[in-house]
Specification:
With 230 residues, the chain is of the alpha/beta class. It contains ten helices and seven strands. A hairpin with a 2-residue loop joins strand 6 and strand 7 (151-160). It is elongated, with a radius of gyration of 19 Å. The two termini are 37 Å apart. The structure holds S-adenosylmethionine.
Length: 230
């Protein structure tokens, strides 16, 4: 497990055994390499949109002698997935929520046809990702939160389902599962956020022309966070 940081290990841990995985935005292919090395899976695609990082991935896969099981492909988002690949699990990690949402929104129904699980790790903008999932027939079945290098990362696993549970505003913001498990990293992330919301609110209220929409939005967030943390 030497290749994986805590963040990547949390993503790795959410992959079901024997799945067929596409790791999108794979500039090192570490997750597919570890999954295949440890006999968790037998086939993966490492997709990358930029040639330089794609070559690094290719080199890593070759160094581990795994080119027969991990195919490194150049392409935008889910374009690297072809029907015969029978990919059932897509990983998108280490990007902003806007980019992840954008990649998912651009995917075609054929690319998602065989996909049962999405494992997503947005660096920021998690609510946007949860919103896309809930509007596109994916239900969140697992979430984790970890601290690494002074950053808090959330990892979200969602399963394709016909009528996914509707998420409340609070669940979109803080995560339906994370809000229940209330891990230490979660409590400290949202305690920090609460402090920063309260500070911003004070600053806005001191201004000459008060932006009432902003005040309402921050006040709402404060209430949501307080409710979950209490
Ligand atoms: N997934 C790895 C991780 O979590 O450590 C790498 C994260 S790295 C910060 C993001 C990678 O995604 C970059 O190599 C970037 O070129 C690639 N990327 C960005 N947009 C992409 C897209 N639309 N399709 C495929 N790869 C993309």
């Amino acid at each position: 497990m030497e290749l994986l940081s805590n963040r990547l290990k949390s993503v790795y841990d959410m992959v079901d055994p024997e799945s067929r995985v596409a790791d999108i935005g794979s500039d090192h292919a570490y997750i597919p390499i570890e999954l295949v090395q440890n006999n968790i899976i037998d086939f993966a695609i490492a997709g990358e949109v930029v040639e330089g990082p794609m070559n690094i991935s290719k080199q890593h896969v070759e160094n581990f002698g795994l080119s027969n099981k991990i195919q490194v492909r150049l392409g935008n988002g889910l374009d690297v997935i072809l029907g015969p690949d029978l990919i059932d699990t897509v990983i998108i990690a280490g990007m902003g929520g806007i980019l992840i949402e954008n990649i998912l929104s651009k995917s075609t129904s054929e690319q998602l046809e065989n996909v049962k699980n999405l494992i997503l790790q947005p660096n920021i903008g998690e609510p946007l990702v949860r919103k896309w999932l809930s509007e596109n027939n994916f239900e969140i079945i697992d979430e984790n939160i970890i601290n690494e290098d002074n950053h808090t990362y959330e990892i979200i696993k969602a399963k394709k389902i016909k009528n996914p549970k509707v998420l409340s505003e609070s669940e979109l913001l803080m995560g339906p599962i994370l809000s229940k498990t209330k891990k230490e990293a979660f409590i400290s992330k949202w305690s920090r956020k609460l402090e920063s919301y309260e500070k911003s609110l004070k600053n806005i209220q001191r201004a000459k022309n008060i932006d009432q929409d902003k005040v309402n939005q921050i006040t709402n967030n404060i209430e949501l966070v307080k409710e979950v943390l209490k």
